[in-house]
């Protein structure tokens, strides 16, 4: 296609432009098993229209994907979700939601690259899925907090029991959240930032 000198390439929408006061940007990944709420969290908290790579689920996934507790889902993330939120006038978080289906986990390494921290979303109906997720973060040296998405039909457990079940040390924060609510999702991100700050103060964050 030939462009004329009078042609213009549209730029980002006004509401999508990075605030001029922003001085620092931090990459955060949101990880978890299939159907745990990663896409919903990015969408609820992002101040820009989120980028999603959802595709319609097909019969190809039958017998391959574990969709327990998510039988009503008709679409799934196949690459990533992307959003942005300004924590302060100076600090901006770039949010990358990872695909939850195990056959797409090979994409995680690229998404983890350069990430300062992570949110591990947990569904108490499928705690076992979280072990591989947290193991991959530990292998990459990415600090994380654990957010328990409060599905209506999911069992509730005290934090002490969850910590034991997930084999997490005391210093890793665990909190409940409702990823459909912007304020709740933002609280999770603020908890992660406070955790990262505490690690930096201890010299444990490089």
Automatic annotation (TrEMBL):
Organism superkingdom: Bacteria
InterPro entries reported in the protein's UniProt record: Gliding_Motility_GTPase (IPR052705), Gpn (IPR004130), P-loop_NTPase (IPR027417)
Keyword Lyase: no
Matching Pfam families: ATP_bind_1
The keyword ATP-binding appears for this protein: no
Keyword set, alphabetical order: GTP-binding, Hydrolase, Nucleotide-binding
Residues spanning the signal sequence: none
Family designation: Belongs to the GPN-loop GTPase family.
The protein, known as: ATP/GTP-binding protein
């Amino acid at each position: 296609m030939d462009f004329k000198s009078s042609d213009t390439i549209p730029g980002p929408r006004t509401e999508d432009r990075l605030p001029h006061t922003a001085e620092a940007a931090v990459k955060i990944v949101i990880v978890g098993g299939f159907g745990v709420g990663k896409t919903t969290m990015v969408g609820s908290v992002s101040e820009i229209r989120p980028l999603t790579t959802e595709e319609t689920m097909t019969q190809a996934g039958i017998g391959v994907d574990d969709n327990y507790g998510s039988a009503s889902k008709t679409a799934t993330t196949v690459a990533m979700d992307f959003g942005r939120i300004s924590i302060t006038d100076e600090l901006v978080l770039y949010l990358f939601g990872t695909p939850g289906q195990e056959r797409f986990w090979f994409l995680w390494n690229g998404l983890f690259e350069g990430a300062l921290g992570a949110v591990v979303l947990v569904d108490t109906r499928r705690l076992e899925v979280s072990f591989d997720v947290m193991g991959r973060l530990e292998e990459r040296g990415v600090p994380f907090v654990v957010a328990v998405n409060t599905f209506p039909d999911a069992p509730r457990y005290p934090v002490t029991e969850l910590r034991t079940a997930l084999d997490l040390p005391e210093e890793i924060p665990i909190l409940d959240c409702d990823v459909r609510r912007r304020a709740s999702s933002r609280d999770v991100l603020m908890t992660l930032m406070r955790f990262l700050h505490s690690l930096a103060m201890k010299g444990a964050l490089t």
